[in-house]
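Priority: medium. Attachment 1 of 2:
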């Protein structure tokens, strides 16, 4: 008898069931569920979790009948059902699924749901030792796009990431004299072997453009912008005005295709490539001695190797999403947050240090998700989960499964009025599976449909908000990862761009106000000429599009159907907002005003507003990393003794309100003004960010207010190395920058201004007004000046610094194009 056999003694309690796992007709008794369970050494035969190639486990009944144990997916209760009331946090996994995460050796992911407006009432502070936190990424971690990193991305993800070479320019329109922007490759300290014959005017125009950008840190390519005109004579085709080679000082520059050495993820093209997957995959595998980080476009083909010619129109036609995904230029540095979603895997995050350390002390805020209830193995229907592992059903079966789930509920649900309302609402606020890379999945669609089920008798605004935060809607209407022009210009090589306008248009046209203004009886409102008045214009769409920037998906978690494992692939939970992607400028509304017109000015809030009635504090648990603001990741990963925290004294009123006799609330709103206790940090600062209460952290949430784009009393602020990192203007009345103490008549202090821990600043990352910064420096025996660099004492780490006040006046100007 094999060793992996469990002998039952007849005292066990069984249920005989039947399911569609077996062929029809379904026969009850082919399957059994053990209801009673068992204990003892026999349990050692059962692994904590099943894997594909585990040895089978058999059971023998007293009757002599044999059974084989069939492992199945167990989904756990991790949130309330739609009909649950009372304390909803009791319906959530008490440790966020951390125990399963540990015993499976992290094969399962933590099931803790990212906290949001949609699940706030399910959240609580868990102090269990197994409690796990949702994956939070250190998005500002930089990846240098060099050959080592490209090879690492392939090794860590298995995706075909290459820099493209071999692209050819064929049209006169691609001449660097025919367009203002062009790309060049430099041979350093080299003399051009075949310099192009050009007029003095053209040479001056091109060398001037190259010289202006030749100091670029990119060692692979140089992108230049030409401002001077070339000579029209150099457009003569016989002189090859496209593939220009020109000497600039000691270096030789060659004009190349604008996509040359761009880095792309070619994985999508592996499936669609007419020449077969191998001809894309072979480059990473070291084919023909190649190094594995680049792919050569076979423009001329190779008759010996039987590679046909590839005209450039193949690149322009097929070199687009979803076949390829742009990563960046070889030689640039890219933030982890800007990687394509498929490359932001757990392995990549861990390899490049983009995953913060786990919380140990203080506890973890654990949250659930509405409707995330366990499966019932006694029911006859088999629900197939689509994952990145074994596929057991055809695409058609998987694709139809969500329709089958909906049909069962629509036909047999007891809440027929709710179901009919949900169906009607779903026909207004729609998504199309064909537009979403999840057509074989079921749960993400049923979860989206539940928005209408849960809010069928509620407020339409709630429906719009939840649908707007849905990853499916963002992918369907293309505002997922929409970025502001200012971000793209700064981090993507000064590229011109616009925020995606798709959702900004559809949320008005299809989901809410429609195309024309209406009277109460539904008839169009007419202008003086009898024409219907439009509800919005293209200018309104452009303005609102900037409001929909910054939305991105969370990292994948456990306890739901998921195909991917990436850190930006969660298509189920409400999206997060990446502050760096957001458009920072004013947005107009439909009433000839601006969004925020009814809110107070931030400059008019009372001093020390963090102690005033209405101030908010959001529980972070044992994590010191804020959710709504952005601090350097080093604040959370550096040894506690080396970080100056805003730690409240037990004698202070604010401490007592947040501590609340040890009953920490998820969100605290001050019911009345508090008084700062003398000799505590509250009396010394203009504002707070994250405060420590014992071993627990809270994030200060300022009341909504408006910062004007134009203001008087501006003062220049600048980063630690002003000569390299630039400056900007800031409102001196707002706590927007830090101190940098120096006297203008002391060259040594101007060269290196000072900031001193617990003297000129009271906690890491502190912001203060210009007046407070100056008073701190005067008390230190210095003043504010137009410094060149900043040093922090006693630890001079770069991440302890930020923007610092100077004594230089400034103002904001606006350019109006006629």
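Attachment 2 of 2:
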């Amino acid at each position: 008898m094999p060793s992996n056999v469990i002998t039952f003694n007849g005292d066990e309690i069984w249920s005989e069931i039947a399911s569609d796992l077996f062929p029809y007709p379904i026969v009850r008794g082919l399957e059994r569920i053990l209801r009673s369970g068992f204990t003892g050494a026999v349990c050692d035969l059962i692994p904590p979790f099943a894997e594909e190639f585990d040895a089978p486990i058999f059971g023998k009944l007293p009757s002599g009948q044999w059974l084989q144990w069939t492992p199945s997916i167990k989904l756990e209760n991790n949130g309330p059902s739609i009909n649950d009331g009372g304390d909803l946090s009791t319906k959530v996994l008490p440790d966020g699924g951390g125990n399963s995460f540990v015993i499976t050796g992290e094969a399962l992911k933590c099931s803790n749901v990212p906290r949001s407006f949609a699940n706030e009432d399910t959240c609580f502070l868990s102090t269990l030792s197994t409690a796990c936190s949702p994956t939070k990424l250190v998005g500002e971690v930089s990846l240098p796009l060099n050959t080592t990193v490209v090879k690492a991305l392939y090794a860590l993800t298995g995706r075909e990431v290459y820099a493209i070479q071999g692209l050819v320019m064929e049209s006169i329109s691609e001449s660097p004299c025919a367009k203002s922007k062009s790309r060049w490759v430099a041979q350093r300290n080299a003399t051009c072997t075949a310099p192009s014959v050009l007029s003095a005017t053209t040479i001056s125009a091109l060398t001037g453009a190259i010289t202006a950008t030749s100091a670029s840190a990119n060692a692979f390519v140089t992108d230049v912008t030409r401002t001077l005109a070339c000579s029209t004579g150099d457009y003569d085709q016989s002189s090859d005005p496209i593939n220009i080679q020109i000497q600039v000082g000691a270096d030789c520059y060659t004009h190349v295709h604008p996509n040359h050495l761009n880095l792309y993820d070619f994985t999508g093209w592996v499936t669609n490539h007419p020449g077969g997957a191998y001809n894309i995959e072979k480059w990473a595998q070291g084919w023909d001695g190649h190094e594995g980080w680049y792919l050569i476009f076979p423009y001329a083909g190779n008759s010996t190797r039987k590679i046909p010619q590839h005209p450039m129109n193949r690149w322009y036609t097929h070199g687009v999403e979803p076949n390829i995904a742009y990563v960046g230029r070889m030689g640039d540095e890219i933030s982890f947050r800007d990687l394509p979603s498929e490359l932001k895997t757990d392995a990549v995050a861990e390899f490049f240090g983009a995953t913060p350390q786990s919380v140990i002390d203080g506890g973890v805020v654990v949250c659930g998700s509405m409707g995330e209830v366990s499966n019932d193995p006694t029911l006859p229907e088999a629900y197939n989960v689509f994952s990145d592992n074994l596929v057991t059903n055809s695409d058609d079966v998987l694709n139809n499964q969500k329709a089958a789930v909906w049909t069962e509920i629509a036909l047999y649900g007891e809440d027929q009025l709710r179901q009919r309302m949900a169906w009607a609402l779903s026909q207004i606020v729609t998504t199309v599976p064909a537009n979403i890379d999840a057509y074989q999945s079921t749960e993400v669609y049923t979860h989206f449909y539940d928005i209408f089920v849960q809010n069928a008798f509620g407020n339409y605004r709630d429906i719009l908000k939840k649908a707007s935060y849905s990853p499916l809607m963002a992918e369907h209407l293309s505002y997922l990862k929409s970025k502001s022009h200012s971000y793209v210009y700064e981090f993507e090589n000064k590229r011109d761009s616009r925020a995606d306008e798709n959702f900004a248009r559809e949320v008005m046209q299809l989901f809410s106000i429609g195309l024309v203004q209406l009277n109460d009886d539904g008839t169009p409102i007419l202008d003086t000429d009898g024409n219907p008045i439009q509800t919005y214009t293209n200018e309104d769409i452009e303005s609102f599009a900037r409001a929909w920037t910054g939305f991105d998906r969370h990292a994948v978690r456990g306890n739901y159907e998921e195909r991917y494992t990436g850190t930006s692939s969660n298509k189920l939970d409400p999206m997060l907002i990446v502050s760096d992607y957001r458009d920072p400028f004013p947005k107009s509304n439909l009433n000839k005003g601006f969004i925020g017109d009814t809110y107070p000015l931030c400059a008019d809030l009372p001093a020390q507003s963090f102690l005033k009635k209405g101030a908010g504090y959001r529980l972070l648990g044992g994590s010191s990393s804020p959710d709504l603001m952005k601090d350097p990741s080093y604040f959370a990963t550096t040894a506690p003794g080396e970080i100056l925290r805003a730690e409240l004294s037990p004698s202070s009123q604010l401490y007592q309100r947040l501590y609340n006799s040890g009953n920490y609330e998820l969100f605290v709103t001050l019911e009345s003004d508090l008084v700062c206790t003398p000799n505590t940090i509250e009396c010394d600062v203009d504002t707070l960010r994250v405060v420590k209460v014992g071993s627990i952290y809270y994030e200060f949430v300022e009341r909504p207010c408006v910062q004007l784009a134009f203001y008087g009393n501006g003062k220049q602020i600048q980063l630690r190395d002003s000569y390299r990192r630039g400056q900007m203007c800031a409102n001196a009345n707002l706590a927007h920058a830090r101190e940098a103490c120096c006297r203008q008549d002391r060259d040594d202090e101007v060269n290196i201004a000072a900031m001193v821990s617990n003297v000129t600043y009271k906690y890491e990352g502190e912001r203060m007004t210009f007046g407070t910064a100056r008073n701190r420096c005067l008390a230190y025996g210095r003043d504010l000046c137009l410094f060149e660099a900043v040093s922090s004492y006693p630890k001079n780490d770069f991440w302890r610094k930020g923007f610092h006040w100077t004594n230089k006046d400034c103002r904001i100007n606006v350019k109006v194009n006629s």
